[in-house]
Amino acid sequence: MGAYYVTLGMRKGKYTVLLTSSCFHIYNKGSVIMGKQVYIIHGYGASPTNHWFPWLKEKLLADDHQVSVLHMPNSSDPRKEEWLDTLANSIKSIDNHTYFVTHSLGSITLLKYLELLNPLPTFGGFILVSGFSRPLSLLPSLNPFTEKEVDYNKIISAANSRTVIAAKDDNIVPFQFSQNLSKQLDAHFISVEKGGHFLEDDGYTAFPAVYDILNHMIKGI
Questions:
Q1: What is the chain's alpha carbon radius of gyration, rounded to the nearest angstrom?
Q2: SS3 159
Q3: Mind telling me which residue stretches traverse the membrane in this protein (predicted)?
């Protein structure tokens, strides 16, 4: 699966496609294949009740999917092993009906967890929002999460669909870090002109683009 690039102009939860390849479509509400398991993994300093996570959970539950928003421990002072253990204890099985949506630190944590699985089963896919795989100068305490490079080929082989979303004005995770992660994962890359770090403070209590992209994955369009 070759990577392609999409630029979205977003404001107050609305979006328009500015640039897209011929094989990608953002679409409105439609029928959804039932019975998927979706795990939502928050990032540093967050909880399941922050930002757009509750909104996305309710949207997916309304579509009859199973949704788990994981509560990552000590999110203001996270420890890599504790976060990996949380995923190991919370994710009971992975298969073609399993999808992940992650934010910020939750993204590299998911990749590290998947890398540890042997064998790593084929699964539906993931959306990484503001993901990174390099140390962040603003948050050196998170360096243990990025010390060792992920086996990207292993994850590429297992994940049927892969998307990374980043905003050009993110002042926490540099845009280039997320863009580089998309290349490492041979993932579709969604570039947002103005979105910051996609936090509640940035106006993100809802995130329609994530919902639509996930539906796109699930329906295999």
A1: 16
A2: strand
A3: none
Check 42, 188, 197, 216 and give the catalytic one.
197
Contact between 207 and 21 under an 8 Å Cβ cutoff? The reply is no
Domains and CATH numbers, the chain: 5-10+33-169+178-219 (3.40.50.1820)
Phi-psi category of residue 186: left, alpha or beta, with phi > 0 → left and psi -120 to 50 → alpha? left
Rounded CA separation 215/221 (Å): 9
Q: Does residue 197 carry a catalytic annotation?
A: yes
104 is an active site residue: yes
CA dihedral 52, 1, 173, 80 (to 10 degrees): 80
For 36-65, letters b (16+ CB in 10 Å) and e give bbbbbbbbbebebebbbbebbbebbeebeb
Residue 35: pLDDT band with limits 50, 70, 90: confident
Q: Would you call 201 helix, strand, or coil by DSSP? A: helix
Pairing of strands 14-19, 5-11: antiparallel
Q: Which residues pair with 37 in a beta bridge?
A: 66, 98
Nearest-angstrom CA–CA distance, 136 and 119:
31
201 catalytic per annotation: no
Amino acid letter, residue 94: I
Provide the 3-class DSSP secondary structure of residue 58: helix
pTM of the model: 0.86
Q: Which of 42, 65, 170, 188 is catalytic?
A: 170
Catalytic residue among 51, 65, 104, 191: 104
pLDDT digits (tens, 9 = 90+) for 148-171: 999 999 999 999 999 999 999 999
